[in-house]
Amino acid sequence: MHKKDIAIVLVSGGMDSALTTAYAFEKYELAFLHFNYGQRTEKRELKAFNDLADYYKVRYRKVINLNYFKQIGGSSLTDRNIEVSKADLKSKRIPTSYVPFRNANFLAVAVSWAEVLGAKRIYIGAVEEDSSGYPDTREEFFKNFNQLIKFGTKISSELKIVTPIIHFSKKDIVINSIKKKVPLHLTWSCYKNSNIACGECDSCAFRLRGFQQAGIEDPIKYKVIKNYNL
User: Fold this and answer.
1) Are 203 and 97 in contact (CB under 8 A)?
2) pLDDT attached to residue 134
3) Which tens digits make up the pLDDT trace of 139-152?
4) Mean of pLDDT values over 103-126
């Protein structure tokens, strides 16, 4: 039997990374990478990561602690003195949940591990539409990071970042997750709570709108359910 090449998947535990996993699973042996960086829902996200890893029977798993994000601050996800803002899906301003240059840090670690494993691809579930104005979720950012990888890794490296859902809407993500039998009930998206999703933060709002537009009920529980499909 032909041995599959390895792809690292950055798995936060949310439904974007879960669907991205399903795409990577079709072509590669998976290596799951997760980050604890002092976020409010750190323990709950880690549970979702492990649940998804068990579901896909992932052999290579790594959890990295990046505690310096909490020391740096500047985000409501890592600084308890900054309130998690309620969602405003029409706003063009970068919300308080933005963690400065987070994806660059995550990808740098992923590249290092990829060189150790001999992985050919790094999958990340970035989505431009619901980026909330995050500059490090744009397609242009990943194209340029691929150039950085090219010049900063061994000549023999074939490593590239793959963003299979970069142009998807949340509705697309829900529909394709159902088609690919992604275990959405195991995922977690809320920025604020770890027991029952708040239903009001940016991440909850984008997720709920996706399900509402798809006409499918979200399998996780919410403290508040608003109609974001307006």
Assistant:
1) yes
2) 85
3) 999 999 999 999 99
4) 97
- pLDDT for 132 equals 60
Burial class of residue 143, CB neighbours in 10 A (0-12, 13-18, 19+): exposed
> Token pair of 193, please?
């709570």
pTM of the model: 0.95
Low-confidence winner among 129-138, 165-174, 206-215 (lowest mean pLDDT): 129-138
Confidence at residue 161, expressed as pLDDT on a 0 to 100 scale: 98
Please state, in angstroms and as integers, the Cα–Cα distance from residue 147 to each residue in 109, 125, 161, 204, following that order: 16, 19, 10, 33
- According to the model, what pLDDT value does residue 186 have? 98
Q: Which residues pair with 9 in a beta bridge?
A: 32, 123
Mean predicted confidence (pLDDT) in 13-37: 98
Q: Residue length, the chain?
A: 230
Assigned token pair, 44: 């709950």
Architecture per CATH, 6-214: 3-Layer(aba) Sandwich (3.40)
| HEC assignment per residue over the chain | CCCCCEEEEECCCCHHHHHHHHHHHCCCEEEEEEEECCCCCHHHHHHHHHHHHHHCCCCEEEEEECCHHHHHCCCCCCCCCCCCCECCCCCCCCCCCCCCCHHHHHHHHHHHHHHHHCCCEEEECCCCCCCCCCHHHCHHHHHHHHHHHHHHCCCCCCCEEECCCCCCCHHHHHHHHHHCCCCHHHCCCCCCCCCCECCCEHHHHHHHHHHHHHCCCCCCCECCCCCCCC
Domain boundaries, given as residue ranges, for the chain = 6-214
